[in-house]
Amino acid sequence: MKAVVFYEHGLLDKVQVTDVPKPEIEPDEILLEVKAAALNRLDLWVLAGWPGLNLKLPHIMGSDGAGIIAQVGSNVTDFSVGDRVAVNPTLGNDSDYFGRRGLDNMSDNFAILGEHVDGFFAEFTAVPARNLLKMPENSLFIEAAAASLVFVTAWHSLITRGGLQAGETVLIVGAGGGVNTASIQIAKLAGAECIYVVGSSDEKLAKAEALGADVLINRHEENWGKAIFKATNRRGVDIVVDNVGAATFATSLRALKKGGRLLTVGNSSGPTFEFDNRLMFGKHLSIIGSTMGSSADYETVMNLIFNGRLQPVIDTIYPLSEGLAALHRLEEGNVSGKLVLTP
């Protein structure tokens, strides 16, 4: 079968579209005929590698996918050949305290499809049946694939961990990323009173406005920390979504009102930084981190996708054979929405 793989860590010159054997499934798995797979910056980080990441090579890339069940394992009873399914990318099992409670993202055995094991950039992939969610007949594979990782991550951060309530104010640092565009929509759906978005271009900010952002701040044209201070009448906001990290964290903390919380699921500009701890105790602030989401989070947010209340933003659809070109586009960063591969 065709797949996008790498045989050693490095840059994109290590990636190739080639033939690899079709996977064999375990009793608790299904064989998925992949109908759509979506790219994430995680794909580039996995390609680069890091200490402690030990992959079976060649590694099939891609953490987001959806498709049709082509084969079921001997222990699988809830799904059948031909079922249309989305796939929760968070792997876990029932062998520890968190896994038995559906908190796969906190499990000692936590892993992500496409990060720690083979992923979706292939014609077929093996997936645990416990990760499947049946799709309605009218739902689209490209939307299910584009939504999975970023929407479950944003939902878990904003709603489950962050406790966003109707009437609160939200600042989202970054207008174009998948988690941020999901966060705008989720905040609007949850009844946020005002959604502030800081972005790097008027084009990205216009798209953020179309998704539900209320106040737009171009960080190249004004000091966004001062702009938030002014726009909130010197009060600050209830919640800041900051997945940038080192470059923005200090300003994000200052943008919070008393009792506010800063939510983070990543650090694209770097993981290490200093902050003034007097802000933390003086303003009663909280920093709340999370990774991915629980199985319940996944089912909740994907059903909102299926019924049209949330909508993934898709930039471009590529054939699987052009997977390397899509990865180059992702690396360049000139993307507003998800890049998706189809057979």
Automatic annotation (TrEMBL):
Origin species: hydrothermal vent metagenome
Cited Pfam families: ADH_N (PF08240), ADH_zinc_N (PF00107)
InterPro entries in alphabetical order: ADH-like_C, ADH-like_N, ER, GroES-like_sf, NAD(P)-bd_dom_sf, Zinc-ADH_QOR/CCCR
Transmembrane feature ranges: none
EC number: 1.1.1.1
Domain Enoyl reductase (ER): start-end pairs: 10-341
Full protein name: Alcohol dehydrogenase
SMART domains, sorted: PKS_ER
Keyword Zinc-finger: no
Organism placement in taxonomy: unclassified sequences, metagenomes, ecological metagenomes
GO terms assigned for molecular function: alcohol dehydrogenase (NAD+) activity
UniProt keyword terms in alphabetical order: NADP, Oxidoreductase
Top-rank EC class of the record's enzyme: oxidoreductase
